[in-house]
Amino acid sequence: MKTLEEIIKNADYKRLNAALTDRAVELALKLKEALITINFEGGFLGGCWLYLEEKRCSVSTDYFLYIESSGLRGCLSTYKSYYYGGDFNCWVSAATSKLRLIFLNNAKNIFAGLEKMQNEINAEIEKALEETKEL
Question: Are 43 and 50 in contact (CB under 8 A)?
């Protein structure tokens, strides 16, 4: 059995948790850009409730990708919680390790759902262009 000090230090957990966070943020930033492009505001996608939340402060505006599960909610597209732009009215609450793990476990399904949404939008646009070609 490990000593109390070994249990508290738990280097494996710290290393794995850092890798989990890095991978989740990397994928979330890519997903966020794709979701902005198709004007996705939020909903159930690939097994997760995902939302794009716009934050405005005195100096800029940005979108943040949030996940919600089992009453927990957190931002996937940032490493730590912080006040966006230093504005105390723009709190960005980072996702917990549990939420990041849920996101990664569903990542393949999320990106498959994104592809399906993109294909549906593309088909609608092509149809509209074809129907209005003679106008």
Answer: yes
Distance from C-alpha of 130 to C-alpha of 125, rounded to nearest angstrom: 9
The pLDDT tens digits for 66-82 are: 999 989 999 999 999 99
Provide the whole-model pTM: 0.87
**73: Cα separation from own chain's centroid:** 11
Q: How many CB atoms lie within 10 A of CB 75?
A: 26
Q: What's the burial of 104, exposed, middle or buried (CB within 10 Å: 0-12/13-18/19+)?
A: middle
Tokens of 67: 């996940």
Element (DSSP H or E) covering residue 91: strand 91-92
Amino acid 56 reads R
Query: What distance in Å separates the CA atoms of residue 93 and residue 56, rounded to the nearest whole number?
Result: 15
Nearest to 102 by CA among 37, 32, 29, 27: 27
| CA 43 – CA 67 distance, rounded (Å) | 10
